Amino acid sequence: MIPRQSLDPSLQTQTGKAVGDMFGRIAPVYDLLNRCLSLGLDISWRKALVQAAAPPSGGRVLDLAAGTLDVAAMLQASRPRLSVLAADISLPMLMRGRSKNRQGKILPLGADARRLPLPDASVDRVTIAFGLRNIRPRENAYAEIQRVLTPGGRLCILEFGSGGQRILGGLYNLYLTRFLPALGRLISRDRQAYTYLARTICEFPTAPALEAEMRTAGFSWVTGLPLSSGIVWLHTAGV
Ligand SMILES: C[S@@+](CC[C@H](N)C(=O)[O-])C[C@H]1O[C@@H](n2cnc3c(N)ncnc32)[C@H](O)[C@@H]1O
To answer: CA 69 to CA 30: how far, in whole Å?
Structure first.
């Protein structure tokens, strides 16, 4: 089990600033740890997200909780005429992604997903990879996403499945709750970040529960696709 008391109280209530500050601290090692801890699978998961988003050429995409710009860079590479906005609450994470935006085509934006500084109906797609878990209440982000999407627009979410379910006969759960926090702590030298990661995955709703939540929040349709035995899910929703 993940010890709750080892987390900063502000992270337990998951205020945007505390979570953003924590990501700011691990920004220098974030990409390396992503590759190591996912055994390189994160690249193919993000590719599936970009494929599902299928933005119109010349359209506008908002990548939310964009972190170090992995998804934003993939989106830009998939359609050179696309306008890509990359929003994140942590400026150090966005700064860390500068090397993936050498041509300056991606527009980084320091912003909270719950209060987006964008006009209504201003983007054709919203993507969010491994970000939704960090945002509370999720309903505030759903409302903002629906507000900024154009009619017929689409939200594509890449997120871990609920670690509360046994996956691969429990092997994955053991990895998640024991190995991942220990290795994350060793490499990042941050006592909280990777315990926080495991805990938020364990507490995250199952795919059907998340999809029901999104329908209640007003999305007109929602689909889900398990990746890597349900370790990760790709959810797509329409306004
Ligand atoms: C696990 S990282 C994912 C980064 C990136 N999307 C990826 O695929 O690697 C989660 C990101 O969510 C951001 N974040 C957390 N709360 C947020 C909020 N309320 N609004 C915007 N970004 C937020 C963090 O700063 C962090 O960069």
So the answer is: 11
Q: How far is the CA of 67 from the centre of ligand 1 (A)?
A: 5
Give which of 121, 126, 135, 124 is closest to 213, Cα–Cα: 135
Query: What is the span of the domain harbouring residue 211?
Result: 9-163+205-238
pLDDT digits (tens, 9 = 90+) for 105-163: 999 999 999 999 999 999 999 999 999 999 999 999 999 999 999 999 999 999 999 98
In a domain, 169, yes or no: no
Nearest residue to 85 (alpha-carbon basis) of 112, 50, 51, 109: 109
Residue 145 domain flag: yes
Query: Is 230's C-beta closer than 6 angstroms to any atom of ligand 1?
Result: no
Q: What total of structural domains would you count in the chain?
A: 1
Query: 120 C-alpha vs ligand 1 centroid, how far in Å?
Result: 22
Q: Which atom of ligand 1 is nearest to the CA of 31?
A: 9
Q: Say which CATH number the domain at 32 has.
A: 3.40.50.150
Per-residue pLDDT tens for 74-104?
999 999 999 999 999 999 999 999 999 999 9
